[in-house]
Write a structure and sequence with these properties.
Elements (H helix, E strand, L loop, with lengths): L4 E7 L6 E7 L6 E3 L25 H18 L7 H10 L2 H13 L8
Antiparallel strand pairs: 1-2, 2-3
Helix pairs in contact: 1-2
Length: 116
Amino acid sequence: SVSIYSVSQFLTSSTSRFIVFVEAVQGQETEIMADSAAPKHEKLWRPPFDARFPNQNQTRNCWQNYLDYFRCQNVKGEDYAPCEYFKKVYTCYCPEFWVEAWDDQRANGTFQGKIK
């Protein structure tokens, strides 16, 4: 007897690898074949521990790094690469809507932080 197989290919978005599902039509077990290489996970960057902010609530850490980023840019210039560290930290800790509100306040001249 001849087995009939139906083959479907799905492209996974995370690894861009094809996973082939081979399903036996004549009552045989379903086989799942995948690429032999395991998907590689990217390592996420997290800011190191800062002893000034030892508690779980990192709101002050967010605020301080936001201020430090713009202070650094004012003193060293916008092209100074080490200032980007402060931006990485505040984008990690600060909710996006806070940053948007603070950016709007800076543009309007109503920002309460001392940047200059």
